[in-house]
Amino acid sequence: xxxxxxxxxxxxxxxxxxxxxxxxxxxxxxxxxxxxxxxxxxxxxxxxxxxxxxxxxxxxxxxxxxxxxxxxxxxxxxxxxxxxxxxxxxxxxxxxxxxxxxxxxxxxxxxxxxxxxxxxxxxxxxxxxxxxx
Length: 133
Known about the structure:
By secondary structure, the chain is mainly alpha-helical. The protein has seven helices and no strands.
């Protein structure tokens, strides 16, 4: 089962009326359990097709709605602003940029070369190129 299938299967299992957990605690749980898994591979996710990133955004929107207990008519922008959580595309771009900056500032020469694409003859764009968009 892929990660996306797992998240969609969890969607049906999570109760929408979480009791005795504040929005702040729920936000922290989301950032710790879900967002950390996405952040682990953020340089690769940042260069994914928009359709894939949109699926991640749908999962995030659903999680924010569960956290706040918001009804269907509350806008996603309101949820993101109230919980101070970035949209997935913005977040992935920032995490990727920080990753490549950390690589460039490393003391190890092998790590410094990560993202330096010399004599590139690839058909598709590389993960670092999404930062410049």
